[in-house]
Write a structure and sequence with these properties.
mainly alpha; flat; 192 residues
């Protein structure tokens, strides 16, 4: 695996997020066909979203569950776009549903893990920790920050131990540079 933080191009993903991609890349490499790894990645995303929506509709009639699951997955453009693009955002749906049920049932452990996993897929979800702080639950909020921070730093260490401190800094610089990055070569919008 090449060093994704070598500063040759902006990489907005932290190391922990790259583990998700690495799992499916390893499957493709093991099967000598990267497309198989990609298909398994997309199928796993499809199943994770569909089964999560199905589980979230528990308690409704079978017909309502079918209607809701179909309309929120197969007929929903964001779902189809996530599958088409293979974007990791598709893995957020099950985690958001899990977080919702953790908060609804006052299960701080479940909510903490959901926020940590959400922040691994997309780091800005760490701001959901504010839910704990707004509820006056400082201990689970602080624990969520600590676990998420440890997970992210550990992933940098595990992914490339020889480049550990430099990779964290390169990623932070990449985040700053990524905001300045633009693939559009003309002033936007051109129709004005």
């Amino acid at each position: 695996l090449e060093n994704p933080f070598d500063n040759s191009s902006p990489n907005p993903y932290p190391a922990a997020t790259l583990f998700l991609f690495s799992i499916f890349e390893a499957i493709g490499i093991a099967l000598s066909n990267p497309r198989i790894g990609l298909l398994i990645y997309v199928f796993a995303m499809f199943m994770a979203i569909t089964l999560s929506v199905w589980a979230a509709t528990r308690g409704r009639s079978f017909n309502q569950r079918i209607l809701l699951t179909t309309s929120l997955t197969f007929l929903a453009p964001p779902f189809l776009m996530a599958l088409d693009r293979g974007n990791s955002v598709g893995y957020l749906v099950p985690l958001l549903i899990w977080l919702f049920f953790g908060l609804k049932t006052q299960n701080n452990f479940q909510a903490t893990l959901a926020i940590v996993f959400l922040s691994i897929v997309k780091p800005h979800f760490i701001f959901l920790t504010l839910v704990f702080l707004l509820r006056g639950k400082w201990k689970p909020g602080l624990l969520t920050f600590i676990i998420a921070g440890t997970a992210h730093l550990s992933a940098f260490l595990i992914l490339r131990p020889s480049d550990f401190p430099g990779n964290v800094m390169s990623w932070l610089v990449g985040i700053i540079r990524y905001q300045d990055y633009s693939s559009v070569e003309v002033p936007w919008p051109v129709n004005i």
